[in-house]
Design brief:
With 635 residues, this protein is an alpha/beta fold. It folds into three domains: 146 residues, no CATH class; 111 residues, NAD(P)-binding Rossmann-like Domain (Rossmann fold), CATH 3.40.50.720; 261 residues, Rossmann fold, CATH 3.40.50.720. It contains 22 helices and 23 strands. The strands form five sheets. A nine-stranded mixed sheet has the order 10-9-8-11-12-13-18-23-22, sandwiched between helices. Helix 18 crosses helix 20. The relative contact order is 0.07.
Amino acid sequence: MIRKLFNNIIFKFVLNLTPTQRRTVLILVDSILLLFSLLATLFLNLYYLKRFEFIIFFKEIIILNLIAIPLYLKTGQYKSLSRYVGSQSLYELALRNFIITIIYGITKLFGFSFIEIFKFSILYWILLTSMGGFARFASRDFLLKFTASPDEKIKKVAIYGTGPASAQLFASLRLSKNHKVVFFIDDNPLVWERYLYNIKIISPNELSSRSSLIDQVLIVSNFKSIKKRKDFLKLLEGLDLPVLEIPSITEIASRKNLIEYLRPVNIEDLLGRQSDDSINDLSLNIIKNKVVCVTGAGGSIGSELCRKISLLNPKLLIMYENNEANLYAINNEIKKLNLVKIKPILGCVGNKFLLKRIFKEHNVQIVFHSAAFKHVPIVQDNPVEGIRNNVLNTRIICEAALEEEINNFILISTDKAVRPTSVMGASKRVAELIVQSFAEENALRQKSDKSKKNVIFSMVRFGNVLGSSGSVVPLFQKQISEGGPITLTDKNIERFFMTIPEAAKLVIMSAAMAVGGELFLLDMGTPVKIEYLAKQMIRLNGLKVKSKNNPHGDVEIVITGLRSGEKLYEELLIDGKSEKTINPRIFKSREYSYNKEKLWKKLDEINDLEQNIDELEILKKIADLVPEWSDKRFN
C-alpha cells in the first residue's frame, strides 16, 4: 500500500517533469555534489583545512559552479536518460570532471605551490567523480525499481550460460521492469559458486533443489553437444519449468534489447536425435554426377530431399511440382545456394507424356516420388481425388520410369499404410503394392531379355516428421501463439516422430542400398503421446498448461474426439519381419503383394470409376486390394 502511494505521488511527479524542469533538478544535484566534494577534499587535506575560511570556501564554490555547470551543459551531461546510465556514462563523467579539476587548479596556481595544488586536484577529482557516479547509478536503480507497476507480477528467471550474451540479456532483463534474474546456470565446473553481477552461478544438478525459486529458464549459451542440450531440456521437463531461448551472440550483436528476441525452443531439440553424418558417404555414391528428379519437390519431405541432394553434387536436380507457389519457393532457395544445376518443372505426375519427355530429354537416372495427398481429414472427405493422385498417378509414374529405364525409383510411403483406418492410408498401401508389382515385372523382364536395363523399384516407409505441413507441430504452435486452446483429438493418441532433415537423409541412403522390391522402414524411435507433445510445446514457449490443477496457466488443452479415419496408434509393419541393414536406423522388409493381372484389373476398374466420380464403388475396389481396411460409407 505504501509503495503504491509512493508510485502514485513521488514517482509520477518525477516522470512527468518537463525537460527544462528535469535539467534544473540535475543542475541543482550537481551543484550540491560540487559543494560536498570540495568540503570532503578540504577535510581530508590538512594543508587546506588549516587555512579554511567560510568566505573563501563560498567563493571557491561559486568558481567551481561557473566552471562546471556550463561545461556539463555544453558536453551533454544532461541529455542522457537516467534509467539507462551505464559504464560509458561514468567514463564521460570522469573526463568532464578531469577537465573541471584542471581549470580549477589553474585558478589556484598563484596562491599555492604546484605540489599542493596537484594533491588537492587529484583528491577532488576522485571524490567528485565517485559521488557523481554513485548519484547517477543510485538514481538509475531507483527509477528501475519503481518503474514497474506494483500490481505487475515479477517473473523470476534463471539464465543458462555465463558468456557475453548472458551479460547482455541480464542488462536487458534489468531494464524490462518485470523480470528478476535469481541465478545463472552453467555446466562449466570452473565457474560454479562464483558470481556474475552479484548473482550466483550454479551447476545444472543444483537446479532441482532450486526450481521452486524461479518461474522460467532462459537459454543463452550453446551446448557442447546435442546430448547435453537434450539432457538439460529433459531436466527442465521433469521440473515442469517453462523455457525460452535467444539467438547466438553473432545473431544478436547488433540488437539492443534481447528480450524482444527470446524465442521458443524447438520441440525437435527434445524429441529429435543426433544425426549420423556417416550416411553421407553412401548417399554421395548414388547421387554424385547423376540426374535426379524429385516429385512433390515443394512439399515438406520433397523440399528437404532437394536441399540434401543439392549438397551431394548431382549433375542435374529436376524439381517436379504441381503447386506453383511451392515450386517458386524451393526453386529460389536452391538457386541461392548456387551449388547445383537445377530445373523446375510445373506439372502433375499424372501427365505421363510430360514425365516421359522429361525423363528422356534429361536422361533422368533417379526418381524420388514424394508427390502425394497426405492430410488424413482432407483425403477422407475427398476420396476420389486422393485415390487418383496417390494410386493412379503412382501407377503412371512407375510406367514412365520403367519405359524410360530409370536406374532407381523410390516411393515415399507412410506408416498410415499399415493396417490403415483412413482413405489416405489405404491409398498409400495400394501405392506400395503398385511399386512392388513393378519391381516384380522388372525382375521378369530382366530374365526374359538381358538387353533391358535394370530398373530398381523400392519404397521407404516412415511416420510423422516434425514440422511438416499437416503435422500437429505447426498447428499446435499456431494455437499457442493465439493464446490457445490446443485442440487434441484423444488423450491416448500416439505417433512416431522424426525430424525432416533426418528423414530425408535416411531416404537417400535407403535408395543407395536398394536392389529391387525392398520396403525400407526407418527407425522412428519411441512413439510419443500427442498430449505430451502439446504440453512440452507449451512449456518450450515459456508458458504453462492451464488446467483444473493450474487454473492460472496460460494455454488450455481441449479434447475434441478422434476424427474420421484417425487411429490411436501407428505401426510400421503389417505382417512381415524386418531385417537389419548396414545403417542401424534403417530396416527392410518384404510384405504381401498381388500378382500383376489382379492388381492391374482392379486399377483399371478404379480408373474407369474415377472418370465417373463413383466414390462408393472406388472405395470398395480399394477395400478389395487392402482387405484390412474398411470405410463406414460402404459397410
